[in-house]
Amino acid sequence: MELIPTQDEVIELLRETGALRDGFFQFPDGMYTNQYLQMALAFRNYQYMKILSVALSRKVRANSEIRAIIPQLSIVTPAVGGLPVAYGVCEALRAKAVYWAERDNEDEPLRYRPFMGNQPGEKVLLVDDILRSGRKLTELRNLVESNGGEVVGLAVVVYQPNTETLSFPDLPFYFLAKLDSLFKTADDTWPGVKPGMEPTRVWQA
Which of 13, 91, 156, 164 has a CA between 20 and 30 Å from the CA of residue 179? Predict the structure, then answer.
């Protein structure tokens, strides 16, 4: 495998580890999909996590403007699930810092732990394992900017957009693989699903 694996190689790795599964799945928000991705299953293998993190870092490093500020760059992720790849990217880039935002309950806003937030003027690269809806990353961007930070780019291992995914047209955006999964509601017809067939209920993670 090359230092930046191909889309097919990334997908093969995800299937091999059980991180990517085909079937009939339902998220807590009522959305259905034919592919479920749980990156934690891939990250259990340290070597695989390192392969993916280093590959993502090399895509980021190809941007000359970001490359020039790496010694001052902070890697920030919107949840603890993104920490493995955030630390991996930080190590590979030799960036300055890694930290994260979190929330106690889904109806609460993202926040930093006490004394952890970004400083005014700080350069920030947003990193996560998956971009699916884009809501958490958008909220994190707003949090960084409300504290006076500057978001210089966005990098995720897998881009799995649905019909309502938020976009980031003004930011450099990097990913290793894109999944063109089906996303439907209960009112939509689902090919290959028989009447009465129960979906596998999964986390929105």
Answer: 91
Cβ-contact 65, 13 below 8 angstroms: no
The helix or strand, by DSSP H or E, that contains position 110, with its residue range, turns out to be none
The alpha carbon of residue 78 and the mean position of all alpha carbons in its chain are separated, in whole angstroms, by 9
Mean pLDDT value of segment 136-141: 97
Q: What is the mean pLDDT of the chain?
A: 92
Q: How far apart are CA 119 and CA 117, in angstroms?
A: 7
What's at 39, amino acid-wise? M
Residue 61, SS3?
A: helix
- 149 Cβ neighbours under 8 A, 6+ residues apart: 74, 118, 119, 120, 121, 122, 123, 124
What torsion, rounded to 10 degrees, do the Cα atoms 72, 113, 46, 13 define? Answer: -90
Residues with Cβ within 8 Å of 120's Cβ and at least 6 positions away in sequence, in order, are 147, 148, 149
Residue reference for tokens 């259990």: 44
- Rounded to 5°, the CA angle 191-197-198 comes to 115
Q: Would residue 201 count as lying in a domain? A: no
92, 54 contact by CB (below 8 A) = yes
* Region 66-74 average pLDDT: 98
- In the structure, what pLDDT confidence band is assigned to residue 194 with cuts at 50, 70 and 90? low
pTM of whole model > 0.90?
A: yes
Say which CATH number the domain at 34 has: 3.40.50.2020
Whole domain around residue 149: which residue ranges? 7-196
